[in-house]
Design a protein that fits this description.
By secondary structure, the protein is α/β, with parallel strands linked by helices. The protein is about 55% helix and about 15% strand.
């Protein structure tokens, strides 16, 4: 068996023992004082305990492999049967304390530790991490959903969204902000391939067949009302590609699906559908219906000009199919089989 030689600092600590014992005793006190609340499963107490333990390790800048392994073994002896203090967990606690201040730790207390460790590994900046924590709390995401949202780069597609819309002009401030948070660019339909999408109707049918995945991509609060949703206006028949209702926005979402580059005339037809849904489906308690053009690609300047004269709240976003994703997306996104297994 290959013997791992400890670093000079680790060897020094383990030889004189004083600094190590200080840390061990501090960690044992923290656990003992919080143990009853840990047993009760109070998440906030557990997260704060982990942060304090991590802080004790970080303050002495000593969290090498041999040191952490020894500490984990001693804690196992001191608290037999108490889980959550393995060497791996202790390393995450140190990382947690290094990268998260006490103020942000207070927000993290509202999500499980498993969510936090994944965020520590997969997010690149504090602003991205904070965004995912807020979104997890607001939407009640399970760890599986959080993993999917990070892998699909939701922060980049929603918080830094390239969606072109006129919400700030056509909706009250609060509704506009909520609507902005709902849309993203591009939408990722990685469960559909080009072979399955020779036409707009093909894509639409695949979306209906995989409506659970579509709702996951749309976000929290959406309900699917139907595809080719029939309306009779002035004695003539019209069909909306996809119709949703959002219980957070308290409004309908009309989606016009286009398997081509955005054209200004798309907004005219969509505006017609938005007006019709407002008059024929929405009730007095609903907010204004929102329209969304989903297209293969868009020129942002053209889309902005097209929306200037539109009085209804309308947005324009692109979408990507599974085999049309850029290489950097393909590397991180789960396969359709992986996503199906998770769902």
């Amino acid at each position: 068996m290959r013997m791992v030689k400890p670093s000079e600092r680790e060897a020094h600590m383990l030889e004189n023992g004083s600094e190590y014992l200080q840390v061990l005793n501090q960690v044992k006190r923290e656990i003992a004082q919080t143990r009853a609340r840990i047993a009760a499963g109070t998440n906030s107490e557990i997260i704060w305990l982990y942060w304090r333990i991590g802080k004790a390790l970080v303050e002495r800048s000593i969290y090498g492999t041999r040191y952490i392994n020894t500490l984990a073994n001693d804690l196992r002896v001191a608290f037999p049967g108490l889980k959550g203090f393995s060497a791996r967990s202790l390393r995450y606690m140190a990382k947690f304390a290094r990268e998260v201040d006490s103020e942000f730790c207070n927000s993290c207390c509202k999500i499980p530790w498993g969510h936090i460790t994944y965020l520590l590994d997969k997010t690149k900046s504090s602003s991205e991490r904070e965004w995912y924590v807020r979104a997890t709390i607001e939407n009640g995401w399970s760890r599986t959903v959080l993993v999917h949202q990070i892998e699909s780069r939701l922060y980049e597609r929603q918080a830094l969204s390239g969606t072109v819309n006129n919400f700030s002009r056509t909706l009250p401030e609060l509704e506009s902000e909520l609507a902005q948070q709902t849309l993203k660019d591009p939408f990722i339909f990685d469960f559909i391939t080009a072979l399955q999408s020779r036409s707009e109707r093909d894509i639409e049918e695949q979306m209906v067949e995989n409506v659970t995945k579509v709702l996951l991509e749309l976000g929290t609060g959406f309900a699917f009302m139907g595809n080719q949703y029939h309306l009779t206006v002035g004695g003539e028949d019209f069909y909306i590609d996809l119709l949703f209702y959002n219980v957070r926005l308290h409004c309908y979402l009309v989606v016009e699906l286009k398997n081509e580059k955005f054209k200004p005339e798309f907004t005219g037809k969509l505006g017609f559908y938005v007006s019709a849904v407002d008059d024929m489906l929405a009730d007095a308690f609903d907010n204004p219906t929102i329209g969304l053009v989903l297209c293969k690609e868009k020129n942002d300047i053209v889309a902005e000009y097209a929306l200037r004269s539109i009085d209804q709240p309308v947005g324009v976003s692109a979408y990507r199919l599974g085999d049309e994703l850029p290489e950097d997306y393909r590397d991180v996104l789960p396969s359709p089989e992986d996503l199906q297994a998770r769902l």
